[in-house]
What we know:
B: 6 helices
Amino acid sequence: xxxxxxxxxxxxxxxxxxxxxxxxxxxxxxxxxxxxxxxxxxxxxxxxxxxxxxxxxxxxxxxxxxxxxxxxxxxxxxxxxxxxxxxxxxxxxxxxxxxxxxxxxxxxxxxxxxxxxxxxxxxxxxxxxxxxxxxxxxxxxxxxxxxxxxxxxxxxxxxxxxxxxxxxxxxxxxxxxxxxxxxxxxxxxxxxxxxxxxxxxxxxxxxxxxxxxxxxxxxxxxxxxxxxxxxxxxxxxxxxxxxxxxxxxxxxxxxxxxxxxxxxxxxxxxxxxxxxxxxxxxxxxxxxxxxxxxxxxxxxxxxxxxxxxxxxxxxxxxxxxxxxxxxxxxxxxxxxxxxxxxxxxxxxxxxxxxxxxxxxxxxxxxxxxxxxxxxxxxxxxxxxxxxxxxxxxxxxxxxxxxxxxxxxxxxxxxxxxxxxxxxxxxxxxxxxxxxxxxxxxxxxxxxxxxxxxxxxxxxxxxxxxxxxxxxxxxxxxxxxxxxxxxxxxxxxxxxxxxxxxxxxxxxxxxxxxxxxxxxxxxxxxxxxxxxxxxxxxxxxxxxxxxxxxxxxxxxxxxxxxxxxxxxxxxxxxxxxxxxxxxxxxxxxxxxxxxxxxxxxxxxxxxxxxxxxxxxxxxxxxxxxxxxxxxxxxxxxxxxxxxxxxxxxxxxxxxxxxxxxxxxxxxx
Amino acid sequence: xxxxxxxxxxxxxxxxxxxxxxxxxxxxxxxxxxxxxxxxxxxxxxxxxxxxxxxxxxxxxxxxxxxxxxxxxxxxxxxxxxxxxxxxxxxxxxxxxxxxxxxxxxxxxxxxxxxxxxxxxxxxxxxxxxxxxxxxxxxxxxxxxxxxxxxxxxxxxxxxxxxxxxxxxxxxxxxxxxxxxxxxxxxxxxxxxxxxxxxxxxxxxxxxxxxxxxxxxxxxxxxx
Lengths: 667, 224
């Protein structure tokens, strides 16, 4: 009846996962009861869960990412404390549990923290920057989000029901084959990633179509903000790379479920093919993450330097150069495969070449700051911290791109330090900069700067204290994923790394405090004009938070920085230069529960596939199909916002902006 | 190609006031594209991603082609007569799918339903032939678990078969929608996507026919 699922799946004999799981279940139940008691459920259903508004979906993506950041960070704390304790000792985590923790840490941080965070920010900001009302396929956007959330839920269910993979964040065969991983851990991994991967692929399709086909009149390609360009490049990579992931994991699933021999040791399977295929996705993936972060830094650096970005054209060319090069370097993840000197040389040189367009970008940002009036707000601090940290991470990457060096450093903690250096220094700092920068646009009030800066310094210092020691022990020969060790020269460095992760913990605590304090004091932090940072691109030309329809009339773009140029004219004259437009009713897409219901059936299907409850699989698939047919059958796709409502919102914003202009003129 | 000709419909969602200039420069400065273009364009991107997924299966097949583990090879298994019939069914169905597009263009319910029905029946025959081929292989001890080569063969060809089956489900839904809702704009957009999907599956089949079956029946000494 219930396949492999029995009461033994619940880890009653293991206190740590059981207590953690019980705590999570308790917290979720408490939140749900609180929400229900306060009567918020209809509001949440109407305004958020069924919303197809790109801004709401973007915010929900970021919220999911923030929660998953906490989960993944707890894993990091456990790993660092285990290694700080496990010198000549077993530590407190048994090997099978430690293996699950590092696997879950990588999986969660990449797929359910970094990906949702960048996708959330792209979702929120990109249509606003393009000066349009929504993405190409609003309901599909909602389906994408909920499928990502479904994958995240499955990974977290594995904490309480069954186990997670013990294979690392990429399940290399033959270890991940049924022979060596007979439990459900790898299956949890595979189905969670397959389900959220479909969501990500649909996001890619949606955003590529949006950037290429839906822009404000006059916004030619070369006039698009850099963040839109990096969004385009990143989503092109999603479209090019995620299908390979789906195919590769499907092959592993076939091996595990029905005894195929793609990657097995028997019947002439080829395990190295898995590594080639998975990294043909995996290397573009890191650029899927970091290119949007580059875009965020471009916006932030230009805004807080009070200057247009230095040489946009070279920035765009560098972005697309990285986009293409990233597809040609996957083999550098396994130089030790033994492909031979020629092949390794080609991929080594290709990997080093990526440093060139990346270097171009660094100089673009530096020259933007040069001669500008730089305001060191917290968003700008993240950007500057990024520039320093990312350059160091990039240089260790160039070092690893040299095959002879890589043979020595392969799978060492030097590698772990390198990719944390670029992912924390690049992606995480980037999404935090974006979060600080666009928060007032999303919610209408500014985050507390003092706590934000304190959080930045904790993160920056904590990062170096945590990861420089890992470079050192990596050079001393310590391999990654060690549950215990007996080399005395590593011990002090791992203690230092443990202190570093505690400093990062302070940074996260300060960020939570920042959010809490800012919400409590939001009345004094209101952003009335919609332009709190003296911004340059179109998202700052509408109210904060923007109305459902984003713009009362679509802006007409006549140069690279349409909003900045109009703002400068208004400043010169001390009043608004654009006359009040003629307001017309606006059609917006109707809410739809399709995404939520599809995700419900996806979780059902995924869970029953993991535990091999076949009748429930069929039920889930039929339910998902029925949901799509029900959606396809509906007759009304849009609702109308009356012209009077549009006028009311826009007039209020125009009044606030006019008042701000007069105040500025008085000063 | 002159882009302005593509701007068929005035679009109420993205261009309510009609402020997009009528001339489209080709540099993307003409404002949001009409709905039909957006839907078709998005679906093309999806098809590209689907082709990339197939390319991974093709790559796996190429890598594992000789990994027969002492089991039967392609040369010993494949029967081109069966494949030829399958190919004929799919190519004919592409023709009838094109006829359905014409009928939709003329808003002719009877011919639309008829052409879609014939398309679906041809697709069904294809699936039945494929299942027969697969069960034949399995009964001769050449199932997907026999060797890495056969795993990759069954996955590549089977993945195409699953796509055709899903398309048949879509086709049935499409016929029901035309019947129940008529030739409404959003349903015509959906049909545009369906026909693109159906033709794309044909293109993938042409690749399978050439790279799997035609190469497979070559005598082993002719292969590199």
